[in-house]
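We now fix the convention by which a protein and its fold are recorded. Here is one such record, which you should read through line by line:

>
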Amino acid sequence: MTRARALQTAVYARISGVDPASTGGPVRLFAEGLPTILARLKVMERATSSVVYNLAPHCPFDPQRREREPNLRTRARGLRGHMITTREQYVSLVAAVHPDTWVAPKVQMVGMVVDERIGLFPGPPTPDGQPTAWLCRDSDLVMAFCQLWWQTQQQAVPIREVPGVLPLTERQLQVAALLSQGAKDATIARRLGVSPRTVTNDVSRLLDAFGVATRWEGGMVLGRACPPALAG
């Protein structure tokens, strides 16, 4: 915990001293706004040759599945490392979308490092409250993050081994995405070209995965899993 706090403070100090308009130097702005940050992660994936170290205390569920293409490419290329997160009620969603994830009791910092040379860290929000992400090539900060990742992994388990995680199909992820947008069963059936009974069964599977008994409770879980910035 002490190491994570010290590293977080050091990263913020470096970011705070940089002009967002600057395009040079060891630290520079990567993107603003969660949808843009997720979309630009494709750039990071293409720039990665061997390893990804990602710490995320909370892993959001994106209804538009913007992470799907880079995730598939990452797994196909056999890149090592990947994400460590904490257990959430929607952990089955995370397991379906990010099957290479590890789950630890605590994750003390948010960030990503690729190939042990380039970091991507959150910075202060914009004046209108949008999150920001910053590229970092400071070798001391990058290696400190890698060491924190390795330390965290020692306490983690593969997400598929977490008790209560249920496998979800691609269609069930689509159902979850439409539910998060407020769609009714009939609308979901029409959009996906399946029967209403199939949708009902998929919703039941999702409720089991969330560990809840009612659609209202399931909606609450999806609300926590899907930030408003990703819902549209």
Remarks:
- Residues 2-16 form the longest helix (15 residues).
- The longest strand covers residues 27-32.
